[in-house]
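Weekly structure sync - notes
Attendees: PM, LS, DV (DV joined late)
Agenda: review two folding runs queued last week.

Item 1: First target. Sequence and structure tokens pasted below for the record.
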Amino acid sequence: MRIEIWSDIVCPFCTIGKAELDKALAAFPHADEVTIVPRSFELQPGGSAVEPVAEHLAVKYGWSPAQVAAQCDRIDARAAGLGLRYDWRAAIAAPTLDAHRLVKLAATVGLARKVETALMLAHFSEGRDVSDHGVLAEVAVGAGLDANRVAEVLASDEYADAVRADQAEAAALGVRGVPFFVVDGRFGVSGAQSAETFGEALARAWSLTHPIVDLGVQGTGPACGPDGCS
């Protein structure tokens, strides 16, 4: 089973949604046959503003400081249930193209999920500016990427086309918000669902893509049922 996940590095519900999916996968009997593929989605494509999340939300939605705090505290409470901490008071809203480009680099060496998770937590829990090249390099190298390759990518526009291609595909699919999960190219799940909901979706998708096939074997062999064996 292949699960593609469109998300942004600075999207709090993306961090939570992925943690809920991981929780569901921990209880999924076919988890070792599941491949996770990170896909890029910029919440502010072409943006350049770097500002505290609290200020960003207040301007974007016209919220008062009390409304910002109430919304972010609810997110933090849900994160806490997953063993995470959303430090929204320190979190910084920033452009994420370069962060996504490093995830694309990581995909070439099998480290996409690890690097993406490290970058998301740097924003979500550590209040780090994930548009800053120094921060990006430190986090990416700490997650296992080669320092020289990271420097080369950050000094160029390498993988930018791959990021834009992900976003074009998302638009073609009608994706307007993230996280968005696509299972085996056929089934979509939108938003940071609960682990239970993800578990149900995984089971249903598996049953539809891996149906039991009648092999056409004739005759009756020994079997057991509620009333005994014969």
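Item 2: Second target, run right after the first with the same settings.
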Amino acid sequence: MKRARPFRLLLSLFLVGLLLSVSACGSSSGVTADQNKGDKDNGTKVTLVFQNIYPDASATNHKVMKKIVSDYMDAHPNVKIELDSLNIDQQKTKLKTQAASNQLPDIFVVNPSAQMKPYVDAGLLAPLNDMLEQNNLKQTFQPGILDYYTFGGNVYALPDGNNIGVMYYNKKIFDEVGVKPPKDFNELLDVVKKVKNAGYIPVVIAEKETWTGSFLFMNIVLRTNGGPGFLQDVLDGKKTFEDPAFIEAVDKFEQLVETGAFQDGATSYEYVEAESLFHSGQAAMYYMGTWATGGMETATIKDQVGVFPFPLVDGKGSLNHFMLAPGSAFAISANSKHLAEAKDFLNYFMLQWPKINFDMKAAVGLAQNVDGDFQKAGYSQISIDVLDLFKTVQGGDLAFDNTMEPDTAQVHLKAIQKLFIQKEPPEVIAKEHQDAFNRNYRK
């Protein structure tokens, strides 16, 4: 199993090439029809199924995808791109079913490291090394980011983003309630109480999609552990899930729930529904990866949005350590009937991705270098603030399900989701995790 990368690489990954003007994309972002005709001029209509996680037609990522797909089909009339747009949890479930029956779509989404390894081991993903060399595509990616999608020297997927977990907040609500961005967990609980008493949702979350609660919970672990590396220590046998750091994190998370931090029925909210509560000014805070910044650019409250790192926990941790989120990534089925065409389209898609995202004011947190001046392009203050926050990153951890094998990760996701509904002794949750780890890693 692939391990989480060492601190030094994580640090370089998130500090190199994240900001402003880099020339790599500008000179190679166009792939003309003449360059890519290949065997598509034989008159046969080719249909490629493109499974993605951009289901919301009003979201910028969906609009970016649709424009790139439309432009490609205009330039390649013999190729039809059929979109299968699903939310994250739906797509993961569907992909597992398709993989089991060896009926994968031509192009689909996988997640880095531990989540994609089973697909690699089963020989279901096509190596993309040759495609990366076309049109200098490889040079557009930030240093080190492709390592999370590389096994045995082969790159099997191309990421759409490279992000950190942050807390967005509504400045207007904070001013009305008379609070400031908290720097410690007890201050966060105090903010939650005051915001709730004022009639607003303190923290909105999309816990129908279980990864959202896990992402926030693991940021608490990052603090209670005093820094990065808890899951790696578990994998290396240096710690267990019954370690005090993990038990304390469960306790702190349950304190958030008991204090009323989240909206009623949080486990019934999907991503788009939850985010709309923040965009519409009904919620004071929203913990999410910085990919959400693009959505802030089009929200009615965009001029009211600020951002801060997740607070320390009883003084533990560092505000310069973040949850690191190398993005979901596009892979190609090794058994695609149209492998050449799929590679040609994905090459074009990834070359256009940073350019079109920049044009649509959604280029914060991409995995590729961006050629452009964000301020001159009219990006809002929240985008500039997030870019500045990237400069403070001094390391962090990957998400649980990007570090642990899938069966253990599934136990974790369900356990955290359960905490939104009923209180459990932290020691019980910790043992549940450790039992799953023992069961799945000692087969």
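Discussion on item 2: The chain is about 40% helix and 15% strand.
Action: LS to circulate a short write-up before next sync.
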